Amino acid sequence: MLSFSHSIAQSIEVVELLGVLAFAFTGIIEARKKAMDLIGVYTVSMMAAFGGGTIRDLLIGNYPLYWITHSGYALTLLGFALASSLLGAAFYDNKLVNNAFEVFDTLGLGLFATVGANIAQQSGCDFYISLLLGTVTAVFGGVLRDIVCNEIPKVFHRNELYATCALAGSFVFLVSIQFGLANLAAMLFGVLATVLLRYFAMKYRIRLPF
Amino acid sequence: MLSFSHSIAQSIEVVELLGVLAFAFTGIIEARKKAMDLIGVYTVSMMAAFGGGTIRDLLIGNYPLYWITHSGYALTLLGFALASSLLGAAFYDNKLVNNAFEVFDTLGLGLFATVGANIAQQSGCDFYISLLLGTVTAVFGGVLRDIVCNEIPKVFHRNELYATCALAGSFVFLVSIQFGLANLAAMLFGVLATVLLRYFAMKYRIRLPF
Amino acid sequence: MLSFSHSIAQSIEVVELLGVLAFAFTGIIEARKKAMDLIGVYTVSMMAAFGGGTIRDLLIGNYPLYWITHSGYALTLLGFALASSLLGAAFYDNKLVNNAFEVFDTLGLGLFATVGANIAQQSGCDFYISLLLGTVTAVFGGVLRDIVCNEIPKVFHRNELYATCALAGSFVFLVSIQFGLANLAAMLFGVLATVLLRYFAMKYRIRLPF
Question: C interface toward A at CB cutoff 8 Å?
Answer without folding.
Answer: 58-61, 124-126, 128-129, 132, 143, 147, 150-153, 155-158, 163-164, 207-208, 210
